[in-house]
Design goal:
alpha+beta; 2 domains; 9 helices; 6 strands; elongated
């Protein structure tokens, strides 16, 4: 069905997007003020210039924070704006003019779709490079150097080839008690043992110390020993030195490749990476669901006025955040598949939206 744009459509879209931007700017300003008040002493102690703080940190922090809570900002905006329309009896006038409730939703969803599309593009392609600058700033001035505390590290670096090390030092880029096993058709073909493997940043190779190699060919076996050996492996120090939030610096193409590599290596955090990937699609989609809930909740004039509707909106906002956190915990614990877990809040709120829509005044 084709809809012709009316004056009321432009009015609602203008008010919707205007209120959203105003609320977003206001909340961001308050948040920046609080964050700056907490870090100002550290900024002064580090003698960081204002331009560096503003450009490298806050300029790249703003889109990340704004997009992270964009669905909730939209929800509160819809509650506030629609409640005001209902309080001024404008919705009654719109419906009394012959416009159906479904038709009235059209400009709301146009506005919500614009925000959802912008949010998705930001999270998939624009925010990751900004996050890289922000996190580099954070890691340089505020965080302690990353230390890999894993023991008995096992990784598959390519099909049939596995490496093992007892521990790895992120400071010296050395893996201790290092070994490589090569399998072919399920049979062990070669095994290398070494006291340690050290990364040579000049050669971009691993230097093995005091190595011992068993080459197995059926019933025959040959032994090779040596003091030092250069070897090229499909793995670098970055694979041992990355924090969990490194995925925030990757666009969707880089993240897909990173997840495939993590699956091959048997990375224990692969579930978290998959959850992050699908959340980039689920969060923007939630904007549409929360918009419908907001309209249905606040389109009727109530005795409590705007304050009551805003209170209900804030309550639902917090429960949505709780649902998202719980679903992430279930995904990380292995109780739920990460794709299912990331979409559960949207499914639950989609059902709530359906029932509220059926009950909304038509």
């Amino acid at each position: 069905m084709k809809y012709k744009f009316l004056i009321i459509d432009y009015y609602i879209i203008k008010k919707f997007l205007g209120t959203f931007l105003y609320a977003l700017i206001l909340i961001l300003a308050i948040t920046i003020a609080f964050d700056l008040s907490e870090k100002v002493d550290e900024f002064i102690e580090l003698q960081l210039p204002f331009k560096k703080i503003a450009v490298e940190y806050y300029l790249n922090w703003i889109p990340y924070f704004a997009n992270l809570f964009s669905s909730l900002f939209v929800f509160i905006t819809v509650i506030f704006f629609t409640s005001k329309l209902a309080s001024n009896t404008e919705i009654i006038a719109i419906l009394s003019s012959g416009m159906s409730f479904n038709r009235m939703l059209f400009p709301f969803f146009i506005s919500a779709s614009v925000i959802a599309l912008a949010s998705m593009i930001l999270s998939l392609y624009i925010i990751p490079p900004a996050n890289k600058i922000r996190l580099d700033f954070d890691n340089t001035y505020f965080r302690k150097p990353y230390r890999n505390r894993d023991n008995n590290i096992h990784k598959q670096i390519k099909p049939g080839v596995f490496i093992y090390m007892q521990s790895y030092s992120t400071m010296s880029h050395v893996g201790y008690k290092f070994s490589i096993e090569e399998f072919e058709n399920g049979q062990l073909k070669s095994k290398l043992l070494s006291n340690y493997a050290r990364w040579d940043s000049v050669k971009n190779k691993w230097i093995l110390s005091n190595y011992y190699i068993r080459n197995i060919d059926g019933l025959e076996e040959t032994i090779e020993r040596g003091k030092k050996k250069d070897t090229t492996l499909n793995i670098t120090p970055a694979d041992f030195s990355s924090r969990l939030d490194v995925v925030e610096t990757m666009n969707i193409t880089e993240l897909n490749k990173f997840i495939e590599k993590a699956k091959l290596q048997g990375d224990k955090n692969v579930v978290s990476y998959i959850f992050d990937k699908h959340s980039r699609f689920a969060y923007p989609f939630s904007i549409l669901i929360l918009t419908l809930i907001g309209i249905c909740l606040s389109s009727k004039k109530v005795k409590g006025g705007i304050g009551l509707n805003i209170g209900i909106g804030l309550l639902l906002s917090f429960t949505y955040i709780v649902f998202m956190r719980f679903s992430q915990i279930f995904a990380l614990s292995g109780t739920l598949h990460p794709v299912v877990a990331v979409w559960i809040p949207n499914i639950i709120y989609g059902i709530i939206a359906f029932f509220l829509y059926r009950l909304a005044p038509k």
